[in-house]
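Hi L., both proteins are below.
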Amino acid sequence: MSEEKNIVILLRQPPQGTLYPVEGLRMTVALSGDFEPITIAINDGVYAFLKDVDKTMYSMHIDFIKNIDLDIYVDRKALNERGLTKNDLIDQVEVKEHGEILKMIEDSTVAIPF
């Protein structure tokens, strides 16, 4: 019997000037066929989920992830360090305390950074 994999996709880069958030969310979608990956935005990755950011290249991935009931979490510490709050974010994400984020990463079988 195989052990169930606990996969975390870490979005660390901003959406401006990079494709990292797009590719990370695409990875979540791809893995969702066989696993239930958790997507976590840390550091500048939190900018990908701001209400006023152009999400043209990845809004469909966010919608898909939420439609199949997978979680997208944002690190509260990263928000605070950037002067942002939950009110600045889209509704599809959930803000978690930094300790909870670290625990999810620590408990994962695989963490894939983008």
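That was the first. Here is the second:
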Amino acid sequence: MGKKAITIFTAKTARELLKGGFTLIDIKPDKNDPDGKRSVFIFRNDENLLEKIKEYKEK
């Protein structure tokens, strides 16, 4: 496992990961959002995290 953390850009996916028991490390402002209203969610790269993200996106 290379990366220690994964950045999530949507609140919907972050919410699903939290419900699934994954660990949220931090919430930061999205530097790419010109309005400064969006946030990014930093999750610990636990086992099966990427598989769950893929699963949520297929819903």
